[in-house]
Each structure stands twice: as C-alpha cells, then as structure tokens.
Amino acid sequence: MLAPFSWLCLLAYSSLVQARIGYFWHISDLHLDTFYSTQGDIYRSCWELTRSVAGSSANNAATAAPGPFGHYSCDSPWSLIESAVKTMKAKQGDNVEFVLWTGDALSHSAQPLSEQKQHEILRNITELLGRSFSSQFIFPVLGHEDGSGSYRRLGELWRHWLPSEALVTFDHGGYYSIEQTKSRLRIVALNTNFMLLDSDVDAGPRTSHSLRWSTEYFAEPKASVSSVSDEDKLLAEQQWLWLEEVLTKSREKQETVYIVGHMPPGVDERHLGRQHNKLTFTEHNNQRYLEMVRRFAPVIQGQFFGHLHSDTFRLIYDAKGNPISWLMIAPSIVPHKAGISSSNNPALRLYKFDTGSGQVLDYTQFWLDLPLANRANEPTWQAEYNLTHYYGLSEISAVALHNFAERFTGTDASWFTRYHRANAVRYHSGSACQGLCMLNHYCAITRLDYDEFRLCLETEQLALQGHAPTARVPTSWSWLLALLAVFYGLPTAGWWCFGGRCNNCHIQRI
After folding, report:
1. Nearest C-alpha neighbor of 46 from the set 310, 370, 441
2. First to last CA, the chain
3. Which residues have a Cβ under 8 Å from the Cβ of 74 and sit 6 or more positions away?
C-alpha cells in the first residue's frame, strides 16, 4: 500500500501529465502585393513607375528605396511572406498544435484585381502554409482584404483544414467553430466583416447622445446600414445567434473557448485626436460583443485578433469594474500601416498554452529588423521579447494585465516605454509618446466601449492639463462630468489619477 507521501507524488505527476504544454502560432495581416518591386516608387506602393496608379503615401521617416524584403511605406513582397513562414517552421518545427491566421492576406491595392487573380494570390499563400505545416491544422479567419469571392469558394480552398461541420457555417457566412477532440478547448472563428454593419437598426435603444458622440468623435466604419443589403444584415444577425448558441453549449459541456477574429472591438490606440479615432465595429455591434463576452467570460479562455498592425492588448470589465477577460492583438507581418504616420517591423507570435484547459501561459514575439534585413539581403528573424518576463507578469489573466496597464498611470514611465517600444515592433518613429499619445493607449486598452473611451480621454486630458487636483477630490469640471456619468451610467475610472496622481485607476462606478 502506498504511503501518503507517495500518493501525493502520484497525484502531482498525474496533474503534470494532464496539463500538457503545447504551442500555437498566430500570424496576421500579410498583405501580399504581387506588384511590389525593388525598382518601384515608394510614393506609389513600391510599384514600378511604368504603372500609372495611385498608391499609398510614403512615410517621411522611411524614404529609402524598396528593399528585397519590403519597405515601411508598402505592402509585403513574396520574399517577406516566405521568410516568415520558413522562420515559423525553423523555430518550432512540427511542435505546434495549430496556427491561427487572422486575415488580410491581400494587398491594400488588390481590390481592382479580378476575383480570379485575388483567389490565385490566396491559393499561393494557402499552399505555402500547407507545405510548411502539413501535419498541423491552420485556422484562417476572414479579413476585410481577403477578396471578393464567395464563402463557398474560399471554403473549397481551405477544406483540408476545416472539418465538414465547420464548412457548413463557413460556406454560409464565413464563420465556424472547431471542437478539439483531445481537449476541452473549442476554437470559435468569427467573420468580423459583419461587425461593420448593424444587422438590425432597431435591435436596441440608440439614444441621440450616443449617435452624436460616434459621429463627432470618431471616424465611422467603412460600411453603413444604408449601404448593405438585407441579405447581409440577415447573415450578420445569424452569426450573432450562432455565436450565442455555441457559447451556451460550450458552457453546458464545460468547454473552454478561444474567440478568433480579424478586427477587434474598441478603438485603434495609434489614431490620435478628434475625428481620428478609428472604429472597427459599429457602435451597436461593439456593445453587443462586449455584453456577449461579459455573459460568457468564465468560458472564454482567450481572444485573438489582428487588423491594427500593432502589438497591444485589451481588457473587458464587468458591471462592478472587475477585469474579467482579455484580448491579444498581434502585430502584422506587413510593415506598412495605412492612414497614420507610423509603421512597424514585421512580427510573428508563438503562444505557449495548456492543451487541456486552453489556459494561455506565455508567448514569444519574433521580429524582423527590416532595414538590417534589406542591407544584408538576409531575413534574420529573432526573438523580440517573452510576455511574462518583459512585462513582469506572474500569469496571463485579465487581473494581471489590468494591473500592468495601471502602471501606465504611475510615476514610473519605464513600463509604458517598454509597452510602446513593442507596440510598433521596435519601429522608430522619431517622436516620443507622451501626454495625449500615452493617454490614448491607456484609454484604448481599458475602455472598449466607445462612450467610455471618449469619457476616459476627455476627463484624463483635463487631469493632464491641470484642471483636476492630485487628490481624489473632483473639481467643478469633474463634478459636471461625474453628473453626466451618473446620468449615462458610465464608469469614472482615473478621472483625477492619471499621470502619477494615484495608482488606483481601476474602473469603478459612482
């Protein structure tokens, strides 16, 4: 008969066996441009001058000629995409469970191309990934730059990765769910293109103040309710109903869930100032998504998105202000960021997780020093940082990430400096991120609701300008905003505690 100590050892060993460590890659925003040329014009998307086209504007900080592996003002050449996939294979081999591919494979300039040409580009990337990861599943999600073909045609392209039950919903609306046979983890892949439109304009109260804040304070999403068909609205609503059903069943079956999509909810942290904060979801869809996550937070182990081309994260809180869920937003492989005066170096992300529960344990970020690669004519991808070590985290959880974000509001600026260096994957823009810039990051991370983001930005800006005292006693300005917050039911976090005024800026309601 085993002694008590032996039983304890056996139980400990059993726990270690059950908590098997696995890895998965996350890649996003490849934006392959088949017209990229080292002889191209950086003011015209790095296309050759003989092509009379309008391209993207060049970054003032990146006026060098196009290199063999890309340029900060242009979309990706094939050589960059190929080097990224080869690096994934070389760094980890076959020791990966799966690959998350969160959309936008095509160039920003691919829209004028024929549907057939767009499909050929997607097929080339698909075949490259398939050759490199022949024993692993790759889970693709649709971005807004993934062609104009039908869902069924794309489903045929990715049929070898998706089981038949996943193809049913993908062929219908571009979304699907994958049940892991050896664990309790379920992958839920959303078509976030539907988030650009409201499935039902009467689906909830739309007060005049909310509409006014959206149109005055933010740049609107590309699609509007009036520009889409009734069929698209129906498909969007069907995805919402399907998502609720999947999460409900996962809760009943005691599964854990990864939600994967292209566009994240909330605001782009790198767009500053009035009329420049870019929305990804419509206001109604953004609120609906946040409410869905709050309902099913115990089931959701992680949320993974791309689209912003930046390395950042987001936090979702419950009604009492407690952090209950997190989102990781992976930087892009493409070095170009349209619409702002900042780019990024190419990046890849390797997650470490418990394959049984799905709990994310850590990740390692890999990056390519683009100017160095172009000068050496050799793409040397290297580890940029390890998440828990770099940010001093004991674990990856909503509480731990919340506590880290609150360091931005303290007197020690080194933590935000670390975050901001990683945010653009060590791209040097030439200007420091302070004041409003730092505030924009903080509010984008902790306020995914659009109204709450606006209130955070305006009230914290008042504090930065000296309109609020260092003690937690509101001035007349703050009292006015506090009354507005009570009226609209909004949180009042950090109104008089940004910039080192206090270290207790967690969301709270008054």
Report:
1. 370
2. 60
3. 33, 36, 40, 42, 45, 46, 55, 56, 66, 335, 336
Could you give the 3-state DSSP secondary structure of residue 221?
coil
383: β partners: 366
Residue 366, H or E segment:
strand 360-368
Side chain identity, residue 340: I
Positive or negative: CA dihedral 81, 82, 84, 89: positive
Specify the pTM. 0.84
Which tokens sit at 458?
A: 């305006």
Q: At how many degrees (to 10) do helices 208-217 and 450-464 cross?
A: 60
Residue that the structure tokens 């079956």 belong to = 253
AA identity, residue 260: V
- Give start and end residues of each alpha helix (H) in 407-449: 414-423, 436-446
Sole residue written with tokens 């696995």:
22
Q: Which residues of 227-243 are buried (b: 16+ CB within 10 A; e: fewer)?
A: ebeeebbebbebbbebb
Q: What is the rounded average pLDDT of the residues 86-96?
A: 96
Report which of 361, 421, 415, 425 is spatially closest to residue 387, judged by C-alpha positions: 361
| Residue 254 confidence (pLDDT) | 95
Give CA torsion, residues 50, 51, 53, 59, to 10 deg. -70
For 142-187, the pLDDT digits (tens) are: 998 887 778 999 999 999 999 999 999 999 999 999 998 778 999 9
| Residue 62 banded pLDDT, cuts 50, 70, 90 | low
Residue 363's nearest CA partner among 93, 26, 19, 7 is 26
Give the separation between CA 407 and CA 366, rounded to whole angstroms: 25
Query: Phi-psi category of 61—alpha, beta or left, where left has phi over 0 and alpha has psi -120 to 50?
Result: alpha
- CA 217 – CA 215 distance, rounded (Å): 6
Residue 76 contacts residue 31 (beta carbons within 8 Å): yes
E runs forming strands in 112-250: 137-140, 176-179, 185-189, 218-219
Helices (H), 301-413: 370-376, 387-390, 398-406
**d(Cα 19, Cα 233) in Å, to the nearest integer?**
42
Contact assessment for residue 292 and residue 244, using Cβ atoms and an 8 Å cutoff: yes
CB 221 within 8 A of CB 196: yes
**Lowest mean pLDDT, pick from 304-308, 406-410, 488-492:** 488-492
Pairing of strands 312-317, 381-386: unpaired
Concatenating the DSSP letter of every residue in 147-175 gives: -SS-HHHHHHHTTTTS-HHHHHHHHHHS-
Phi, psi of 49 (to 5 degrees): -60, -25
From the list 271, 48, 278, the residue with the least C-alpha distance to 144 is 278
**Cα separation, 36 vs 56, whole angstroms:** 13
Q: How many residues does the chain have?
A: 510
The C-alpha angle 144, 147, 151, rounded to 5 degrees, equals 90
Q: With contact defined as beta carbons under 8 Å apart, do 366 and 382 qualify?
A: yes
